[in-house]
From TrEMBL:
InterPro entries: Apaf_helical (IPR042197), LRR_dom_sf (IPR032675), NB-ARC (IPR002182), P-loop_NTPase (IPR027417), WH-like_DNA-bd_sf (IPR036388). The keyword Repeat applies. It holds the Pfam family NB-ARC. Residues 128-287 form the NB-ARC domain. It comes from Medicago sativa. This is Disease resistance protein-like protein MsR1. GO terms for biological process: defense response. GO terms for molecular function: ADP binding. It comes from the Eukaryota. PANTHER family: NB-ARC DOMAIN DISEASE RESISTANCE PROTEIN (PTHR36766:SF21), PLANT BROAD-SPECTRUM MILDEW RESISTANCE PROTEIN RPW8 (PTHR36766). Keywords: Plant defense, Repeat.
């Protein structure tokens, strides 16, 4: 036994004796002291992981089995002694019987709180007011309201990270983004998953609210903070339903509108001029006293034209950074025209259009920015999907290097927020961007949609169809009527204009209640199709078979459980389809897509396709060059026939913890250049035939 192993074993032994002695002491006093009984329950609950650790040491570190068995037997003996001692007092026994030992505190850490903002100005007064209310005893609902882009989310996030607020609520902080169409069942599912509890099946939104109430009551007695970010007027009644009868329960709502029925309201106002100048200097990378480089009056006019709106200041300042004086004068002239920027969001969008002036020398970046609006509001946009799209649409390289350059430029200009939840050096080395995401501010997303819709419907490069059950608060009948009207309108467009639609990109967001009729449509020019699903089951519509130019198919399910996808055989007729990316999808049995070059599966169920499929992967995708499988928890083995795809150049199987072995004949993949098996923790060995992979340039078997 190594010295390190011996230390671990001794530490574990001492931990056992300490824990068991503590149990004996508590058991003796259990009849007299109720708090001691609670401590007993906590210790018993914490004891189980220790036993599991020892078993793992025994299996993986080759400890002497007799020593480990002795420790486990000691634990069992002490537990029996504790039980016998407890049986002497019938009241204690009855109390312990009625408790759920495995429950534990629901929240081990705050839920979904964004990163702490690094730089803010002008928020001190509303921050202090809301902080005082949060620290006050008792339950209450607070509303932070103001125009879009004023910093409501930033302020709410800053409060969650405040030392005193964090000290009071500790891990019991839940941050939920509602948006225009809150997917309540999905939100509650994610909270259950975060707590490590089984994700229940909800009958409806009311059932989800009730289950959330039961979950939150598990922290009864400890302060609880629920942040509801970006709540729209149609969700006001839903906020009321979330006002559970829990002691010291605070709800902080951020919204573009005020809700009079909630008593405590804080109105966020535009920045004072001095704060606006400070913010502008920060994002324009100008020292506060260096305005002589750019004429001071010019700076003052630019800042005043932004009317104190932080988002506008940030975007305009960044766009003017290191730009010539002539462009400054042009922006000042154009921003000074028209009415106040606060009159309406439409005018805000019109003024924000000016940021494209600094991008006029690079139209590809403008197009890429507008593509970000193709994905649902307030959801992370996977960079890997953008790489696939842009390589086909704008002839960027397949490695993603040029795409990341554009994304970083958008980030530098504050037009997008790049997020890397888990940094892995090997990802960058392999040009693997599965851990890279983009978040887009609501106003900037609307800006992208606004610019895309300036062209006539039948001439647009992008079509964005967003159909949800609760869109705009419509009833089921009204929703059905709206779908029929839209379908008729689209058919009318085709009849009036016999030319095919010019759209190269089609984005459709839908749930199980919506079925848009495209029977008369001819989307033959579409090269990229994005399907955003909010449903447990989805059948690919027949009109997909008409997309003769389709090159990239991206299907993402935004619910917790993988969505069952059917009608996959439609793809067999698409001769130009080269890339498919599926996320949170139960992958069906494959259909033959002869010219497919790249297949990416992220957080998918693969067993049906890989183990029970009616067709071999080598027959389905005979010309496949790249296969990416990431976070597929049910993956046990690679699909049969994979070693017969001689064209395969990249094989990446990452974060698939149940896969234990690779095919013995993997050496047949003579063109393989990259093999990544990162974080496949149960992988025991690599076949010796790997030595036949003469073209292999990169092998990654890291565990982190």
């Amino acid at each position: 036994m190594s010295s390190a192993t011996h230390i671990i074993t001794l530490a574990t032994r001492f931990q056992f004796h300490d824990v068991l002695n503590k149990i004996s002491q508590i058991a003796e006093k259990a009849q007299e002291n109720q708090s001691s009984r609670r401590s007993l329950r906590l210790i018993l609950r914490n004891l189980s992981p220790v036993v599991q650790d020892i078993k793992q040491y025994n299996d993986h570190l080759d400890h002497p089995r007799e020593e480990i068995n002795s420790l486990i037997e000691e634990n069992d003996a002490e537990e029996s002694a504790c039980k016998c001692s407890s049986e002497n007092d019938s009241n204690v026994v009855e109390k312990l019987k009625n408790e759920t030992f495995e429950a534990g505190p629901p929240f081990k850490c705050p839920f979904d709180v964004p990163e702490n903002p690094k730089f803010t100005v002008g928020l001190d007064i509303p921050f202090s007011k809301l902080k005082m209310e949060l620290l006050r005893d008792g339950s209450s609902t607070l509303v932070l309201t103001g125009l879009g882009g004023l910093g409501k989310t930033t302020l709410a996030t800053k409060l969650c990270w405040d030392q005193e607020v964090n000290g009071k609520f500790m891990e019991n902080i839940i941050f939920v983004t509602f948006s225009k169409t809150p997917m309540l069942k999905t939100i509650v599912e994610r909270i259950h998953e975060h707590c490590g509890y089984p994700v229940p099946e909800f009958q409806n939104d009311e059932d989800a609210v009730n289950r959330l109430g039961l979950l939150l009551k598990k922290v009864e007695g400890s302060p609880l903070l629920l942040v509801l970010d970006d709540v729209w007027p149609s969700s006001e009644s839903l906020v009321e339903k979330l006002q559970f009868q829990i002691s010291d329960f605070k709800i902080l709502v951020t919204s573009r509108v005020a809700f009079p029925r909630f008593s405590t309201t804080c109105i966020l106002k535009p920045l004072a001029h001095e704060d606006a100048v400070t913010l502008f200097h920060h994002y324009a990378l100008m020292e506060k006293n260096s305005s002589d480089i750019i004429d001071k009056n010019l700076v003052e006019k630019v800042v005043r034209s932004c009317q104190g709106l932080p988002l506008t200041i940030k975007v305009i300042a960044t766009s003017l950074k290191n730009r010539p004086h002539d462009l400054w004068r042009k922006i000042v002239k154009e921003l000074s025209q028209g009415h106040s920027i606060l009159d309406s969001n439409t005018e805000l969008l019109t003024r924000l259009q000016k940021i494209f002036d600094v991008l006029e020398d690079n139209p590809t970046i403008i197009e890429c920015f507008m593509d970000l609006a193709l994905f649902p509001e307030d959801h992370r946009i996977p960079v890997a999907a953008l790489v696939d799209m842009w390589a086909e649409l704008y002839r960027l390289d397949d490695t993603g290097i040029q795409a990341m350059e554009i994304i970083n430029k958008l980030g530098i200009m504050n037009l997008a927020n790049v997020i890397i939840p888990r940094k892995d050096a090997s990802d960058t080395d392999n040009n693997n961007y599965n851990n890279h995401f983009i978040m887009l501010h609501d106003i900037l997303r609307e800006l992208g949609i606004y610019r895309s819709t300036k062209e006539p419907f039948e001439q647009r490069k992008r079509l964005i169809i967003d159909m949800h059950k609760n869109k705009s608060g419509l009833t089921e009948k009204q929703q059905g009527l709206m779908i029929r009207i839209l379908s008729k309108f689209m058919r009318l467009c085709v009849k009036q204009n016999p030319q095919q639609l010019a759209a190269r990109i089609l984005s459709v967001s839908t749930d199980e209640t919506c079925a848009l009729d495209w029977s008369q449509m001819e989307p033959a020019q579409v090269e990229v199709l994005i399907l955003n699903l909010h449903t447990k089951q989805y059948s690919l519509p027949e009109w997909i078979g008409k997309m003769s130019k389709l090159k990239v198919l991206i299907i993402t399910n935004y619910t917790v459980h993988p969505s069952e996808l059917t009608n996959f055989e439609l793809l067999s007729s698409l001769q130009n389809l080269e890339k498919i990316r599926l996320e949170r999808i139960s992958v069906p049995s494959f259909a033959t897509v002869k010219n497919l070059k790249k297949l990416s599966l992220y957080m998918c169920n693969t067993r049906l396709a890989f183990e029970k499929g009616s067709i071999l992967i080598s027959d389905a995708f005979p010309n496949l060059e790249e296969l990416n499988i990431d976070y597929c928890k049910d993956l046990l083995v690679l699909p049969t026939g994979i070693c017969d795809i001689i064209s395969l150049k990249k094989l990446s199987v990452t974060n698939c913890h149940k896969i234990s072995s690779l095919p013995e004949d993997i050496g047949k993949l003579e063109n393989l250049e990259l093999l990544s098996l990162s974080s496949c923790t149960d992988l025991e060995a690599i076949p010796t035939s790997i030595e036949k992979l003469l073209n292999l340039k990169h092998l990654d078997i890291s565990t982190a």
